[in-house]
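ARCHIVE CARD
CATEGORY: sequence design from structure
SOURCE FIELD: tokenized fold
FIELD CONTENT:
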């Protein structure tokens, strides 16, 4: 569950928060195999941030802005697609379909 404090921070400082959360995982965010090789706790940290991004996109309209060349936010949908591809690879379940909605719930279903 993403709490209101975490959402407020992400909404107020999306670029800096994303950089702090995802920079240690740069290689994994560029390679599905590297993502799948991460420890589950590291994958959980990424999943949590991507779900936070989904929420601030839905609730506040904050996402990647292609017209702003200085905007380093990765598109939320691209993050989600990559995370689910990496989770499918880690779980050995290539047939799993994205149910949409809460990414934390979707990943829990995929892992079970």
């Amino acid at each position: 569950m993403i709490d209101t404090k975490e959402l407020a921070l992400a909404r107020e400082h999306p670029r800096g928060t994303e950089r702090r959360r995802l920079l240690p995982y740069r290689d994994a965010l560029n390679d599905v195999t590297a993502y799948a090789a991460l420890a589950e706790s590291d994958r959980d940290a990424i999943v949590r941030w991507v779900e936070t991004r989904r929420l601030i996109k839905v609730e506040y309209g904050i996402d990647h802005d292609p017209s702003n060349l200085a905007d380093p936010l990765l598109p939320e949908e691209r993050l989600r697609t990559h995370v689910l591809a990496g989770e499918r690879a880690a779980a050995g379940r290539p047939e799993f379909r994205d149910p949409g909605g809460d990414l934390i719930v979707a990943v829990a279903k995929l892992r079970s």
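CARD ANNOTATION: The first helix runs from residue 4 to 12. The helical segments are 4-12, 14-22, 32-37, 40-60, 76-91, 103-111.
SHELF: design records, drawer C
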